[in-house]
């Protein structure tokens, strides 16, 4: 059941969650891009197609033979759930861009806010009415060449080994376009999500990763993610196997699940 803190996070605007976004920066290779946080409902149909296509291209060969197979319909329902949020990395190269207004930063450092927010995002007004008190929703539209990467997440509660559920930012996806890998963008996405979770005073960031996705497991480990207390493999390893012997005195096979549940605490130690 959602707690007051989780309900508050789900109701918060993107500017409340990340007051320093959107911002514009440039990588060492000269690629300029914007980073922003948006609700799934603010994405245009074309933008949703771009996100799904990148996910499917990166993950289909791994996930369809796993315990998490999907159809396009089921995955779209998950990706674009009403509570889903996205941290977007979008190319900001354009004829109107002034490179002098963009900070050139090491991507492993948190990016600074700049005064120039010109990007290739096309915001289309989708007003719910006119006049005082009426909300105007900007529909975010971008093409495949604009999307460098994204992190899809939600605010939720998760079980623990105690009676208290954890309040978490659950990371559903971290996906990068092949051409933008190796430049620290994955770290930027996770750092941004962790910063959002910390500001909302959540317990941790959680995610599920397939064991056969070795590159992703290595990446998350380097970022400080470890098996969560409810990770089934970790729980199996911590059991007393001497109590689980069969009639022949042989130990039962260890947990064979093909995924791990990882987390990183957001609480100061």
Automatic annotation (TrEMBL):
Gene3D superfamilies: 3.40.630.30. Its EC number is 2.3.1.257. Residues 116-135, 227-269 are annotated as: Disordered. Pfam families: Acetyltransf_1. Residues 140-244 form the N-acetyltransferase domain. Keywords: Acyltransferase, Cytoplasm, Nucleus, Transferase. It is found in: Cytoplasm; Nucleus. Residues 237-256 have a biased composition (Acidic residues). InterPro entries: Acyl_CoA_acyltransferase, GNAT_dom, NAA40. It catalyses: N-terminal L-seryl-[histone H4] + acetyl-CoA = N-terminal N(alpha)-acetyl-L-seryl-[histone H4] + CoA + H(+); N-terminal L-seryl-[histone H2A] + acetyl-CoA = N-terminal N(alpha)-acetyl-L-seryl-[histone H2A] + CoA + H(+). It is an enzyme of class 2 (transferase). It comes from the Eukaryota. Belongs to the acetyltransferase family. NAA40 subfamily. PANTHER family: N-ALPHA-ACETYLTRANSFERASE 40 (PTHR20531). This is N-alpha-acetyltransferase 40. It comes from Kwoniella shivajii. The lineage of its organism: Eukaryota, Fungi, Dikarya, Basidiomycota, Agaricomycotina.
